[in-house]
User: Fold this.
Amino acid sequence: MPHHVKSKALSHLRICDFTGQLAGAGATKFMAAFGAEVIRIEDPSNHGRWDILRGMPPYVDDRRGPELGGPFNNHNVGKLGISLNIKTEKGRELFERLVAISDCVTENFSSGVMRSWGYDYDALKQLKEDIIYVSNCGFGHSGPYEKFKTWGPIVQATSGLTMSSAIPDQPPAGWGYSYMDHTGAYFMAMAIMLAIHHRNRTGEGQYVDVAATEAALTLNGPVLLDYTVNGRPLRRDGYPDANHSVSPAMAPHNIYAAKPIPGSFDEAWIAIACRNDEDWHAMRDVLVADGCDWAADDGYGQISGRMAAQDELDEHIAEWCLRRDPFQSAEMLKQAGVPANAVQTPEQRIDQDVNSAEARVWPTIRQAEMGRVRVDGIPAHFSETDWSMTRGAATLGEDNDYVYGELLGLSQDEIAGLHEEGVI
Amino acid sequence: MTTSSNLLAMMALDDLRVLEIGDERGAWCGKLLADMGADVIKIEPPDGDPSRRYEPFVDDEPHHERSLFFWYYNTSKRSVVMDFNERSNADAFLKLVESADIIFDTNTYDPIGRLGLDYHQVMADNPRLIWCTITNFGFGSVRDDEPHTDLTLAANGGFAWMNGYDDHSLPPVRGGGQQAYHTGSNYAFMSILTALLHRDATGVGQHINVNINASVNVTTEAGSYSWLVAHATVQRQTGRHAGVAPSMPSQIKCADGRYVNTGIPPRRPAEFGLVYQWLEEEGLLDALPEAPLLQVGGQLESFSLADVFSGDNEELLAIFGAGREAFDLLASKLTAYEFFTKAQNLGFQVGVIHSPEEALEDPHFVDRGMQVKVEHPELGREVIYPGAPYQLTKGSWGITRRPPLLGEHTDEVLSGLE
Assistant:
């Protein structure tokens, strides 16, 4: 299905949306792509700058300004945008009218912000009996750290994900970006849709408290049970060891330096993973045929031997990997049935990997001031109600006429007056 | 401490039956469904799901009922053994499909083809069915035949390029856990819920094609959009965002040898004042020659960060430098946990770098119910699992049963079919 056909999957839903940055904005972006009417509310008094990404780099050209930031556009594709100053009496009245015609209210402020405005779940429920209110903040809306502030790297640090991303005898490498802003948004989207299905079944709305740190904690995986059952902590000598694999046991399993590609960066890397003895025997044959006699050593034949001699094995393989660029070596191994892949640069994975076109995952949208620009799409396609992305992030108040005029029934004069007064 | 949920309480997805066919790539998606109440039936080959043989094992004793890897991903599910190599199972499989709302598969066992069934016919006969495939490169990709693991998918899709150290002689680092598979499963669950809401409204099901490589690709923040928007490439840095240009370190080793992420260091006048006071409370003013600059910073009118980054205002630069020095000094005198809580109580966004087990035992997460006890009667043990990834107040999350024994529910499920 082409990208421009609007999805009907969620077109019966309207979201009154205070989310921003990525941890919140990513959730409603997903739903907007499937047709939900997401009405994103921004404060006109500071040009929507609560969202610190507004106007942040990268930029498509030399122009700068709050409507020209790449990340803000990327995370807000397909949403409607209105301006509304919630601190004015008339602004509150408009917000309350919007809530009354919405299915959900969403936000990712620090805990307590909505409450300070007088809009906790009970207040929102007064405006619409079956409203669903979903908040997403770092530590959630209760507990000892309720008032603590976070962004992606802090969520990753406190949940265990930063620490577990490391190689032995080095400090944490962590995640080189806000993995948990993306993924916190995924969990927020799940939470919203779970609550809607519950409402579809029962007629009742609810409050959902999403804490990105808790979503992150659940992503640590089996190491948690190794601790609670076997008493084995990840903080122990020789660990974490993220490029090796003890669970499940695989060897060789690592990222090795490869011969750089002329004209590209002066470093290149290849990931190799032998899942089992069969994979190793196939890799051994490739290596022996390439003159690596050491690979024929019987000691490597079984997983126990390879795990025990992992460092020695790594040294040998590292030498072999330097012979060719990572795409060439990976191709030799994959042909033999062994998992291997170049550590791809952004250019390689986005513009040179044949899977990009197949996946149709980088749609080009049009944003009012930036023009045509590519964005992160959705890595799934639906046979009946596929997603679409055509319009970039709304400029400040770009959809005021539609929302205040058509949805709330205000006249052009009234809208102009509210704008004049700084309400919208 | 929370115990596993009351079976009588309604759960958001307890109206749904799900068939899970496949390997560890989709198991996380199945857990997300099952812990919300869906009746997830994991169909296993006669020798069991491969991950039953993955380390670690209970007491390090290898056995297909003792894999903690399998346990982690298979709470709240039921297990049915069905051999897809036996065409005589086609009828039973079709009846299972008729009883199901959702199927997701990682295409590993190719059940349809091997049972001699036609996928299109199955979909046509079950118009309400939601069928989600989770594959490395998307259903039918030209790269479909390539062998991959979580590591090689992380390398292909962009995770690995993002993570590592300032020292580029050290390799890129795969994050802990199996985050490429998790990310594919996260998208599968979001997609299934989307299709479910559409079915709630229309009664119509559909096929969903989830691509793990593409899921990783769109989960790299500036890694992707720096290239998409400006054709710029980010480079990995120790413990902080990979950048097109290098940035200041943001990870400090504390007095106890553990690390904190300093997040956003002091940068507003009031914050310089707070750091000064903090140094004073710890008796460290004399240990920091630049401390008076913090006092000066505390008295400033507001200024724009652009003035700082332009580098023209030497006094501002010195004040910012003093703020970082103060953080370094405080961290060197305090444990990581003390630094974290004291700084956060002053309003600074810093984070203690916990190991996974330390996070599970952190008082905040304990208070929030993130330790959930699940009975494993066969082993006479009560096992602590991590709790809810989101807190619904109605129809909420819960582990409804321990992970299933191999084929534990084959008879009860198959005999219950018409």
Notes: The first strand of chain B starts at residue 2 and ends at 3. Chain B touches chain A through 151 residues (CB under 8 Å). Residues 260 and 353 of chain B are 5 Å apart (CA to CA).
